[in-house]
Amino acid sequence: MAGLPHKILLDESQLPTQWYNVVPDLPGPPPPPLHPGTLQPIGPDDLAPLFPDDLIAQEVSTERFVDIPGEVLDVYRLWRPSPLYRAHRLERALGTPARIYYKYEGVSPAGSHKPNTAVPQAFYNARAGARRLTTETGAGQWGTALAFASGLFDLECEVWQVGASYDQKPYRRTMMETFGARVHRSPSDLTRAGRGVRAEDPQHPGSLGIAISEAVEVAAGDPETRYALGSVLNHVLLHQTVIGEETLLQLAAVEEVPDVIVGCTGGGSNFGGLTFPFLREKLAGRMSPVIRAVEPVSCPSLTRGVYAYDFGDTAGLTPLMKMHTLGHGFVPDPIHAGGLRYHGMSPLMSHVYELGLVEALALPQTECFAAAVRFARTEGIVPAPEPTHALAACIREALACRESGEEKVIVTALCGHGHLDLAAYDAYLSGRMVDEDVTEERLAPSLAGLPSVPTP
Ligand SMILES: *Cc1c(COP(=O)(O)O)cnc(C)c1O
């Protein structure tokens, strides 16, 4: 190991100055979002009550590259470019000839990749004159990122945190409040959507879909308030491509070409951010990595969902998006990877999956935490519960290489650290963590509740 690079760093002058939009490089565009009333494709005007013009333009953009504003680059420089590590000690522990690289996004202020999009979203909203942003948060990562970014651009920030995680992760709330946000337990009494759910079940653990309904309802009712989403939408995946652009430069610096790229998928943003620049290279014939999304067996939107138009939230307030979905009424088990508990998948990622350009795999959480503990003990970083899924898939691949003798180059995004998720590690280490599979009986009602949209 002596002399081999462990940490591949870029200097600030190599920070990408453009985000990459994969849409023009695909064989066809993703199906458009539809207005839930008319079932016609929505236009920019339909989105105007929720988002500023710049973000709407990015949402529908067909330009391959979008310049990153100087004000955003200035903030990115607080932690970017982020390091790419070679996992020498993990490789040795696995006895694999594979070479494993991980791009570490835990160095950001929130401890995850989420500030990559929170900062530009806050910037564009502030420039358009917004006074307040509302949002939802599951594990608390997105709320933390938006709280931080809002403060930098003098915006108020109000967060609906999924009840189960609000109860389990009090320190996330403290972190959001430290950055200046107001945090509500969702479902709350502050919105019609929240009151509706609470009327049926006052102890409801909440879900991302419900929290989105609450944040959207408040933003739609106040002209000075806009809504910000931390994943799923095209502009979010666009902003996250700084991850993949940097990783391309870092691998080139050590003359490596990836054979397999794996990442965890909740709404698809860290995965899209890592993989789209590589997909561009693949489509141009310059490399041919296998690209693999990893999701929890408890919320298997890609591997067991249907590809259909569905709402992004539980109350049905959002436009209809064509995506891999378990149905907007599906409430996943409260697994520890809160960021992966979303009923749908980004429409853009779903489209890319339908085109056969990426594969998907679902893993149980105990296998993921076993991988994470192994990783922590060799590489020294305690991963967030979400990327434990990616690490478990890396380990599966590396062990297959041990059998076959193949020296594959495996690349993943370690998209966050788990310093505020130690309760999950405690559950795992004390043997209390269980794997819950989703039965067909449980999926059936939420799939039956999909809105009916005639095929054009
Ligand atoms: C939010 C989050 C996720 C899930 O969101 P994606 O859009 O799929 O990336 C995964 N990992 C971490 C650390 C997160 O904070």
UniProtKB/TrEMBL annotation:
EC number: 4.2.1.20
Keywords annotated in UniProt: Amino-acid biosynthesis, Aromatic amino acid biosynthesis, Lyase, Pyridoxal phosphate, Tryptophan biosynthesis
Domain Tryptophan synthase beta chain-like PALP: 78-416
Keyword Glycosyltransferase: no
One Pfam match: PALP
Gene Ontology, cellular component aspect: cytoplasm
Molecular functions per Gene Ontology: L-serine hydro-lyase (adding indole, L-tryptophan-forming) activity; pyridoxal phosphate binding; tryptophan synthase activity
Record pathway: Amino-acid biosynthesis; L-tryptophan biosynthesis; L-tryptophan from chorismate: step 5/5
Lineage top rank: taxon: Bacteria
Modified residues (N6-(pyridoxal phosphate)lysine): 114
Enzyme class: lyase
Reactions catalysed according to its record: (1S,2R)-1-C-(indol-3-yl)glycerol 3-phosphate + L-serine = D-glyceraldehyde 3-phosphate + L-tryptophan + H2O
Annotated spans, Disordered: 184-204
Quaternary structure and partners: Tetramer of two alpha and two beta chains.
Similarity comment: Belongs to the TrpB family.
Task of the protein: The beta subunit is responsible for the synthesis of L-tryptophan from indole and L-serine.
Name the UniProt record assigns to this protein: Tryptophan synthase beta chain
Species of the source: Geodermatophilus tzadiensis
